[in-house]
Fold:
Amino acid sequence: MKMNDLIRTIRHNWPVKVISFVLALAIYMVIHYTTMATSSYQIPLNVIEPEGYTIVSTVEQTVQLNVTGDKKYIYMVNPKAVTATADFSQVNESGVAVRDVILSYDDSLFDIDVTFSTDPESIKIFFEESESTQEAVK
Structure:
């Protein structure tokens, strides 16, 4: 087939082809998003504290784990196999520190197509230098 014939074939009835493509895309999206679901669980939050600092503010004990995926598969996820951690070990001054919540899990347990997220996505904690550290500096 020559290039001219290919262009002529593409240009022939192009409005019908565009409408068909848009309609097919719309049908795909409707089917895809009607089979998607989200399930939420409360999981414990592990906070790694920095040395020489004490936590002054309140710290959340749990975070909400949101599992999004196909309705058939999201209920197969064991939320106890997912751990949430906020690592503040690199904090080196008094004040408010913000860290993202990191999710960790064994990939072999979740060979299905799901997406994990947390609420809240980040944790804020107010730290003060501990008394033993202040005395050592003096």
User: Anything to note?
Assistant: The chain has a mean pLDDT of 83.
